[in-house]
Each structure stands twice: as C-alpha cells, then as structure tokens.
Amino acid sequence: MFQQPSTNGLIVQQASQRLQAYMTQVYAWMTSGLLLTAFIAGLTARSPALLNFVFSNEITFYGLIIVQIGLVLVLSGLIRKLSAPLITTLYMLYSASMGLTLASVFIFYTASSISTTFGVTAGMFGTMSLYGYVTRRNLSGLGSMMFMGLTGVLLATLVNIWLKNTTLMWIVTYIGVVIFVGLIAYDTQKLKMISEQLSSEDKSNVRKYAIMGALTLYLDFINLLLMLLRIFGNRRR
C-alpha cells in the first residue's frame, strides 16, 4: 500500500538536493577559473610582448601578486556586502591574473610533463575531495593541523628566498604536497557545512558562496599542481 514519505525523509531529501546543487556550482566555477587561468597562461607564454610586460619589470610582476592577494582578501572579507555579479567578476579577474603570473610554468616545464602532472593533480584532487564529501569523520582537527603547517610552509618559503637552500626547498615542497592534499578534503567538508546554512531560494547568495567555495578549491588545486610540478616536472633545456 502506498504511503506518504515522512516529514524527516522529505527534509533529508531536500537537504541532499540542496547540497548537490551547491557543490555542482562550486565545481563548475572552480573549473571555469582553472580553464581561464590555463588559457591566459598559454596565451601569455606564446606572446613575447606579454611575457616581457609581466616578467621583465619587477614592479609589474609583484604588482600582479599584490593585486591577487588583494582580490582574495576582498572576496573573503566582503562576501556579504558584495553583489553576486561583482563577486563573479572579481573571481574571473583573479583567475585571469593568475594566468599571467603562471605563464612561467609553460616556459620552465615541457608540455608533456605539465599535462601528466595536471592529470596526477586532478586525480589526487578528485580522490581527496570525494573523501571530504562522503566521510562522516569530523575533519576540523585535520584542518587546524593543515593551516598550521601551511603557515610554516609560507614562512619557510619566504626565508628561503634569501637563503636559496635547495634542501629546505625540497622539504617545503614535500610537506606542501601533504598539506594541500589534506586541505582539499577539509575544505570540501567545510563547503558541505556551508551549504546547510544556505537557503536554496536565495539564488544570489548561493552563487556568492559557491564562487567563494570554488576559489578555495581552486587555490588548493593550483598550489598542489605547482608543488607536484616541482617534483615531477621536466624542465626545458
């Protein structure tokens, strides 16, 4: 005999649908950002004029770095105040500017090693993001450890700019891989928790937080890719 689904069952189903819709947006925006970054990086690497503009002048290069940091801070700190279209624009602007500074990847490494490492990165990202999505284990403790480790990696990287110590560079690289692998799982679980606080009826707000989630995973992916390239990438001769 047919029975109406229970209220609890409907609530669980609606929450599941809301989560799936939100995470679909997150991954779609992340992919869009990565594609834009790759396109701009490839375009810049093939243009002597753009390469000269970005890398021959320290003011331009470090100016772009400062702009990128500023965009992340603005997006993170003002998400509630900014409109969804503006957040979208700033995210795509950030992705494009990253393409300019990451053009060096196409100069230093062979195309085949970039493709291979990208595939490895995508596989690792997919595995850890899936784990963060399905696990019932609370990963907040892991996240705290990873953020402390990330702080140490950033400080060691800054110090090594002056020391130029190869051993320290490799230590930081391998630790960095572990950290970003852990952050992918933690950040994915955190995005699941964020989706629970969002109303599916407020499309604009969902889009804003989806883009912020995409930015978080984008940064995890890019940093993991760069660390793995340092390990596995074949440099041009």
UniProtKB/TrEMBL annotation:
Family: Belongs to the BI1 family.
PANTHER family in UniProt: BAX INHIBITOR-RELATED, PROTEIN LIFEGUARD 4
The organism's place on the tree of life at top rank: Bacteria
Stretches that traverse the bilayer: 26-47, 59-79, 91-111, 117-134, 146-163, 169-188, 209-232
Record's keyword annotation contains Transmembrane helix: yes
Pfam families per UniProt: Bax1-I (PF01027)
Subcellular location: Membrane
Chief location: membrane
Signal peptide interval: none
Organism annotation: Salmonella enterica (Salmonella choleraesuis)
Topological category with respect to the lipid bilayer: Multi-pass membrane protein
GO cellular component: plasma membrane
Keyword hit for Membrane: yes
Official protein name in the record: Bax inhibitor-1/YccA family protein
CDD domains: BI-1-like_bacterial
Assigned keywords, A-Z: Membrane, Transmembrane, Transmembrane helix
InterPro entries in UniProt: Bax_inhibitor_1-related
